[in-house]
Design a protein that fits this description.
Blueprint lengths: L24 H15 L6 H8 L13 H17 L8 H18 L1 H7 L7 H17 L3 H26 L3 H13 L10 H13 L5 H14 L12
Helix pairs in contact: 1-2, 1-3, 3-4, 3-5, 3-6, 4-6, 4-7, 4-10, 5-7, 6-7, 7-10
Length: 240
């Protein structure tokens, strides 16, 4: 793609594509998510998207400046899906927990796209809405602005970082995933107590726990640390 995106008011395609689809930014993004899920990162090309939509690839320039612009829209869609239906409760801890779990779930539901997009800053509407919401939770709980920003940064990096790790593991081919699971049983569970006493004592726990996402537990540790930093005299309850 190149740098000739068409202004919003001139984007609408008046005629449907060969497949009967009327193009829109949302339709293109949803198709991109489906293609990446099926075929990986290499599917995010103008040619493949055009073919999937039944449209001339050049028509995509009306919606996105280039492939990176499209990737940012995909990333923003994942953030938006995480927020669908979320409403603040006034309990900062419950609200942050819910946001974090929703973000992680959204990325885990689209592992191939998450690997591409979790580290990107989109500057688009969904991301902006999420930043505003998280900062609002923290500032309403009583954190000074500088502290709220630092906690926001750590919270988002933890959520997206661990979501990206989970997504990368989920995106592995099935034989690779099975081999990694096998290692905990075939290698670690057989290490002798005289050379590896700590692994030997916990091998059965390791084998089970390493198959789960670490994020829910890591999130609780993070929230405990945040609670310990609440300003003296603050109740931690958001302002209604």
């Amino acid at each position: 793609m190149n740098e000739r995106v068409v202004p919003e008011e001139r984007r609408r395609r008046r005629r449907p594509t060969k497949q009967g689809t009327v193009l829109s930014e949302r339709v293109i993004v949803e198709t991109a998510l489906r293609l990446v899920a099926q075929h990986g990162a290499e599917a995010l090309t103008v040619r493949r998207l055009g073919a999937a939509l039944g449209a001339d690839p050049s028509s995509l320039y009306r919606y996105f400046r280039n492939a990176d612009d499209l990737l940012l829209a995909v990333a923003d869609e994942l953030i938006g899906r995480a927020q669908n239906g979320w409403e603040p409760t006034g309990d900062w801890r419950a609200d942050l927990r819910e946001i974090g779990l929703r973000l992680c779930a959204s990325y885990r539901a689209h592992p191939q796209a998450a690997v591409l997009a979790a580290h990107r800053t989109t500057g688009r509407d969904n991301e902006t809405r999420a930043v505003e919401a998280i900062l609002g939770v923290l500032r309403s709980a009583g954190f000074p602005d500088a502290e709220a920003v630092a906690i926001y940064h750590a919270f988002v990096d933890q959520a997206l970082g661990l979501a990206a790790l989970d997504a990368a593991a989920s995106a592995l081919p099935a034989p690779a995933r099975e081999n990694e699971e096998r290692i905990w049983h075939a290698r670690y569970a057989r290490l002798p107590a005289d050379t590896h006493p700590n692994i030997n004592a916990t091998a059965h726990l390791l084998a089970a726990d390493m198959q789960r996402s670490a994020y829910p537990f890591a999130l609780e540790l993070f929230l405990d640390a945040v609670a310990a930093r609440l300003p003296h005299g603050s109740t931690g309850s958001a302002v209604a």
